[in-house]
Write a structure and sequence with these properties.
about 475 residues; alpha/beta; four-stranded antiparallel sheet; 15 helices; binds pyridoxal-5'-phosphate
């Protein structure tokens, strides 16, 4: 027997209570799940039940079997990787999206979804200060947006011929990004058919941003060798250390050589809500496509990636499909978002963004982002105050990269790497906070991102106290 409306009403209230309890108690769980590989799988039956089960039993098993296997991304003590923060506003919007079951590929299949998507993407464009000639479309992830961008470049620059005849008569196209750019660029280069050996990794400046002298040099060398430069992907916030590539310089080079220019601002793009951060997009007039992820640092539950294009014509010409059964008599007057990307079926994602933007307002969003950045400044100061710790690159926005380097011990690099690896393991095993690591110039680096929706200064200061104490314990 499937649930009827009366049972739905009753059970839905239990779910709301479960969620509210979860957020009330979230700080009591180990932030990083402490279970071992196989634990969850082994606790679950190998096949689905033949007879339907009672909803309360499913909830009991959720608490007993599933909860221990969660890493609590929404904990205010989560400082790892990048934020994937949500908010109650977003959760409620997502409820409705799931409930309405809209399919948002054509205007006609959900006029409200198409027009709300256009509206919230315009709101977002204004919020982050992109010029008016950019138009937005929601993608599932930055990875998909970057792939979409490179395929559009491929088609525009090959006169839309690769879509019809394939690569056979083509030159060898080359794509450029820094060696610290996100792995999704290499993935996109592979999937779009360029071949990963044609992704040219550019050297770095001391702050891990792209070295544009080397970019120019490698483009020139490629031209001399008979390759065909196609696109530059610049990182507004690299994955390891949030280094900010010069959009201005990359843009200039892209125009000089007639190349496509895509900006991957997945995490750091949110900082553009602050007018004082707009220097990061100086040169935006020389950008073709831009992506940032509200599902990272803008209170939006996964997924919601905001993809902006300057020339929607080339995007649509690349992805358009028009089978007879999808034709409608309003096609010329509306946005049919199936033609703005890879998927046909699309979720009603704009709804949660509408809830967030309306109930928070832009002022509160700006205040929150400013506060998150001030938390990282606070950490930077605490690190500076402790002679046993050092920053490995200057703080960028809401990320600090540092390591433990007890100054009286004079440890060599290899011992320092081991020491810091142990430190991260012990910190995360405590369950009290969760942070992650990277390597910068071969140095094992601790990364702390401050940007959880419900983090307060007190969480950040306790986290730092904990790190200092665990470091002291390791030495003793
Ligand atoms: C997180 C991140 C990505 C990948 O984002 P998805 O939405 O998960 O695909 C890409 N680039 C950068 C710089 C990132 O920080």
């Amino acid at each position: 027997m499937m649930m009827d409306i009366a049972q739905f009403r009753e059970n839905a209230k239990k779910i709301i209570d479960l969620i509210a309890d979860y957020y009330s108690n979230i700080e009591t769980y180990p932030v990083k799940s402490q279970i071992q590989p196989g634990d969850i799988k082994n606790a679950l039956p190998v096949a689905a039940p033949t007879q339907g089960e009672n909803f309360d039993n499913i909830l009991l098993d959720f608490n007993k079997l599933i909860m221990p296997g969660l890493t609590h991304w929404q904990s205010p003590n989560f400082f790892a990787y990048f934020n994937s923060n949500t908010s109650f506003e977003s959760i409620l919007g997502e409820f409705l999206t799931a409930s309405l079951g809209q399919q948002c590929f054509s205007w006609a299949t959900s006029p409200a979804a198409a027009e709300l998507e256009e509206t919230v993407m315009n709101w977002l464009r204004q919020l982050i200060g992109l010029p008016e000639d950019f138009q937005g479309v929601i993608q599932d992830t930055a990875s998909t947006a970057t792939l979409t961008s490179l395929i559009t470049a491929r088609e525009k620059f090959s006169d839309y011929s690769i879509n019809s005849t394939g690569f056979a008569a083509q030159p060898v196209w080359r794509i450029y990004c820094s060696s610290e750019a996100h792995s999704s660029i290499e993935k996109a280069v592979k999937i779009a058919g360029f071949g990963k050996q044609n992704l040219v990794k550019i050297e770095l400046n001391a702050d891990f941003s792209i070295n544009t002298a080397d970019l120019r040099k490698k483009i020139n060398a490629d031209i001399e060798s008979g390759f065909k430069p196609l696109a530059i992907v610049s990182a507004l916030g690299t994955t390891g250390s949030l280094a900010i590539d010069s959009i201005k310089e990359c843009g200039k080079i892209s125009r000089e050589y007639g190349l496509w220019h895509h900006v991957d601002a997945a995490h750091a793009g949110t900082a553009l809500v602050l007018p004082e951060m707009r220097y990061m997009i100086e040169g935006i007039e020389n950008v073709d496509t831009f992506v940032f992820n509200p599902h990272k640092w803008m209170f939006t539950n996964f997924d919601f990636s905001a993809y902006f294009v300057r020339d929607k014509g080339s995007l649509i010409q690349t992805f358009e499909i028009l089978p007879e059964y999808l034709k409608t008599n309003v096609d010329n007057d509306v946005n049919n978002y199936r033609d703005w990307g890879i998927q046909l079926g699309r979720r009603f994602r704009s709804l949660k963004m509408w809830f967030i933007l309306r109930s928070m307002g832009t002022e509160q969003i700006r205040n929150k982002i400013r506060e998150h950045i001030s938390f990282a400044e606070y950490l930077e100061n605490r690190i500076g105050d402790n002679p046993d710790f050092e920053m490995l690159t200057p703080r960028s926005l809401n990320l600090v990269c540092f390591r433990f380097n007890p100054y009286e011990r004079n440890l060599n690099e290899s011992d320092l790497n081991k020491l810091n690896e142990t430190l991260v393991e012990n910190i995360n095993a405590s369950g009290k906070i969760f942070l992650s690591h990277t390597k910068l110039n071969g140095k094992y680096t601790l990364r702390m991102v401050t940007g959880q929706t419900y983090s307060e200064l007190q969480h950040v200061s306790s986290a730092w106290d904990l790190i200092e104490n665990i470091a002291k314990d390791i030495l003793n």
